[in-house]
Amino acid sequence: MILTNAKILINERIRIKADFFLMELAAPEIAQEARAGQFMMLTALANDSPFLKRPMGINAINKQAGSLRIIYQLKGKGTKAMSHLRAGEHIEVLGPLGNGWKIKDDMKSVCLVGGGSGIATLLPLAVELQQKGVANIDIILGGKSAEHIICLEEFSHGGNTMIATEDGSLGQQGMVDIYFRDNPNYDMVFSCGPTPMMRKAAQWALSHGLKCQVSLEERMGCGYGVCMGCVCETKDNNSGHICYKRVCKEGPVFAAEEVFFND
Ligand SMILES: Cc1cc2nc3c(=O)[nH]c(=O)nc-3n(C[C@H](O)[C@H](O)[C@H](O)COP(=O)(O)OP(=O)(O)OC[C@H]3O[C@@H](n4cnc5c(N)ncnc54)[C@H](O)[C@@H]3O)c2cc1C
Ligand code: FES
Question: pTM for this one?
Fold first, then answer.
């Protein structure tokens, strides 16, 4: 875990109505350690409390250039402050944090299901799966409209991309589950996005006996396991008992069967 004052290389709006911004940072030490599915904490405001950093999933890792990318959606005070920063300015960043996606060497066929800003976190996973030579990578992306489907071109290089939009402005009209086939045959389903979407993906996978990983979002204080601000209830697989886990430390990626999908 590294705390650094990273130079902002790019910070630009990439979607007008859906309010998505892309930020690229020079942070060589974090980039060296970062893995797909991990996140960083960013201090959006110069005088903010260190406990009010904002968690953002890593969207691209360039170890050679020493840079990292995030895609963030405007929500409130913190993300608004981030959007006002300019290339050349600096931002305090802590990372890489969390466990990341678990990728096994023997995976041959996988399905990625993403929605909203969760799509951003799936991109480095798709890249790594492709580099590992996974033969079949199905990618199902969903959102309100075409504006909400980010990184589409980059995903298209790595897999079979299927799009569902609620208004039908891109791909098929509907939610991601219109692509959930009967009798799927995947070594793993990976999902990141709104809770109802991850719940559907998990139910689909588990009901067909497939393994599934989901990446959870919780409000966070510290981001490295100290404040207990991000604790969530999980099921112990062996005993069935409820236990408590920190999304920032034991997560954000969990086995779907451990998770209670509370909206
Ligand atoms: C591990 C992790 C990875 C994330 N990755 C991304 C990402 O790649 N891109 C992205 O756009 N967002 C991501 N988020 C969500 C992002 O952290 C929040 O949207 C951000 O902190 C909001 O800050 P704010 O000050 O603008 O909003 P606030 O003023 O704090 O809140 C505005 C609204 O956003 C909601 N919100 C605030 N924090 C969170 C949170 N941590 N999770 C869910 N909802 C929240 C609040 O309930 C409120 O409705 C991630 C969150 C986590 C935990
Ligand atoms: S955010 Fe502090 S313990 Fe997870």
Answer: 0.95
